[in-house]
Amino acid sequence: MKKVIVAFSLVLGFNLFSAQAWNGTADQKVQIGLGAWGNGTGITGTYDYGISNLLSVGAGANLYFDNYKDDNKDNRFFIFGRLNAHLQEPLGLPEQWDIYPGLDLGLLGNTFGLGAHIGVRYFFNDKFGAFLEAGNNGSLGVSINL
Length: 146
Fold this sequence. Notes:
mainly beta, Porin, eight-stranded antiparallel beta barrel, globular
């Protein structure tokens, strides 16, 4: 078992050298995760596209399936556009880390939806990482470089 742990640690360590959490212009990320707080418990998916070294635009959708705040079945979907400000370069973070505050604007069922979040990504290698977003909605999951 110790040999397996050591081998896994070495592979992970070598992969960290090529990890890149934010590439700037034309960078593309897909995130899939569990929405664990906010409007309810459910699943979330987002897409971000880098328009500069500091900004990305994107879209996302949340599907709430438990503990929804008002039990209105029409409001169990949040479909939104999003804008993020990436702070990796301004904060001098290592390349595998990215911190990004952002805004979400869209439709929550049949009403207007607005959200704000601060997120963090950590990439284990050049393709896969983990993310956490906290705000009026929160999620945790997998981040994928395209």
